[in-house]
């Protein structure tokens, strides 16, 4: 299933724009684009919502016919337990996280212990925990960690753009993680020379205009055949003013959806 996530609405949610979208606004916009999946990922207000606010948001998603996934950072067992509780409210079947959280930086041995502690509850609830590929942890170490824990409800959220900051190849990342992938983050990326030709900026770009060989990902991971959801997000730098930034963000979303739908 193709989905949108909060990172596709990064600036539209931001207080830098005159009328930022609420979470339910983003749900409605997602539905208006004929998309059936929304991933609430690293959306800070989610953890501050009361029980009634969570239920209202979940009810709005259900009324719109949206499937919801969740995303957070960190694998401290108590934190993963909290997100499993939120997942129950939204009937979410997947929680994306990262090994390192804002206040936790476990060793691989600690991470394994924490995941073993948490994963049984995820198994019982029928929820998958997908740990994202990113530059703070070598992809081989992430794969090894998940393989040692050895649960069908623990896998990888594949984002090959992140690992470039570790001087890893996106293509190699895809090939190393394919068998364990449970979720895919979809965005294109490119390098651009800085002014004066002194160094490069690594950033997002409109889908199909950058370096991401998405056909290779499709051929290697086979997400559609395996029922793995593909969630659209962006790395869009601020475009000098709110109007241009919002227009560009929406154009990138439209271009990515068109690109994905063209490959179905």
TrEMBL record:
Residue ranges of domain Xylose isomerase-like TIM barrel in the record: 78-255
GO MF annotations in UniProt: isomerase activity; lyase activity
Swiss-Prot/TrEMBL keywords: Carbohydrate metabolism, Isomerase, Lyase
One Pfam entry name: AP_endonuc_2
Keyword Repressor among UniProt keywords: no
EC number per UniProt: 4.1.1.120
InterPro entries attached to this UniProt entry: IolE/XylAMocC-like, Xyl_isomerase-like_sf, Xyl_isomerase-like_TIM-brl
Enzyme class: lyase
PANTHER family registered for this protein in UniProt: HYDROXYPYRUVATE ISOMERASE, XYLOSE ISOMERASE
This protein's name: Sugar phosphate isomerase/epimerase
Natural source organism: Microbacterium murale
């Amino acid at each position: 299933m193709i989905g949108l996530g909060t990172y596709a609405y990064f600036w539209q949610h931001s207080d830098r724009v005159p009328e930022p979208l609420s979470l339910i606004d983003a749900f409605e916009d997602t539905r208006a684009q004929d998309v059936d999946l929304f991933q609430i990922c690293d959306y800070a207000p989610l953890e501050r919502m009361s029980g009634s606010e969570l239920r209202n948001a979940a009810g709005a998603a259900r009324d719109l016919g949206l499937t919801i996934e969740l995303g957070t950072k960190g694998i401290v067992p108590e934190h993963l337990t909290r997100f499993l509780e939120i997942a129950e409210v939204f009937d979410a079947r997947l929680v994306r996280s990262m090994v390192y959280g804002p206040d936790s930086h476990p060793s691989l041995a600690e991470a394994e212990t924490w995941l073993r502690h948490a994963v049984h509850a995820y198994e019982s609830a029928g929820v998958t925990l997908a740990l994202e590929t990113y530059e703070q942890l070598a992809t081989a170490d992430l794969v090894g960690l998940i393989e040692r824990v050895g649960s069908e409800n623990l896998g990888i959220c594949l984002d090959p753009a992140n690992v470039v900051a570790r001087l890893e190849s996106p293509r190699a990342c895809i090939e190393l993680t394919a068998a364990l992938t449970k979720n895919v983050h979809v965005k294109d990326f490119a390098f651009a020379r800085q002014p004066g030709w002194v160094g490069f900026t690594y950033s997002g770009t409109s889908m199909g205009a950058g370096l991401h060989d998405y056909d290779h990902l499709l051929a290697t991971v086979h997400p559609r055949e395996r029922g793995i959801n593909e969630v659209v997000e962006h790395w869009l730098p601020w475009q000098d003013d709110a109007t241009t930034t919002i227009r560009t963000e929406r154009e990138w979303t439209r271009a990515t959806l068109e690109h994905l739908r063209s490959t179905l």
